[in-house]
């Protein structure tokens, strides 16, 4: 066995570890704030031309202040719509939206009578 064949498996392992570590560092979180009447709305993405595409099966989680701890509450339907009932008795809510291939979105929602519907845009990681 030559030194080259003994060294190659170690090199491959090192390269794979380096690549996986760099992939994990590329996720980005998008933080936004919105005013809304209630905790319902829609989730969408945009194509290269700016056209909106409804996103189904997006996980919607309600979090504690600062997004420290989150619990899944719902998923979006085929038209990208969601509605959650919060057990938190407060005007400010912290919602997290997750979908594979898209950046995590954290939305701070302030409930207000003159607020509209929530509209959340997810950004592709690609």
Automatic annotation (TrEMBL):
Recorded superkingdom: Bacteria
Residues annotated as signal peptide: 1-25
Signal is among the record's keywords = yes
Q: Which UniProt keywords apply?
A: Signal
Report what the protein is called.
Carboxypeptidase regulatory-like domain-containing protein
User: Which organism is this protein's natural source?
Assistant: Granulicella mallensis
């Amino acid at each position: 066995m030559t030194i080259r064949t003994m060294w190659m498996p170690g090199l491959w392992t090192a390269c794979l570890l380096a690549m996986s570590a760099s992939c994990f560092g590329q996720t980005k979180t998008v933080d936004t704030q919105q005013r809304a009447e209630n905790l319902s709305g829609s989730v969408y993405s945009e194509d290269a031309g700016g056209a909106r595409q409804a996103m189904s099966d997006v996980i919607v989680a309600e979090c504690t202040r600062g997004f420290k701890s989150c619990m899944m509450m719902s998923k979006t339907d085929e038209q990208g719509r969601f509605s959650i009932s919060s057990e938190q008795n407060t005007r400010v809510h912290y919602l997290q939206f997750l979908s594979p291939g898209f950046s995590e979105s954290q939305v701070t929602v302030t409930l207000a009578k003159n607020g509209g519907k929530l509209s959340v845009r997810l950004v592709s990681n690609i």
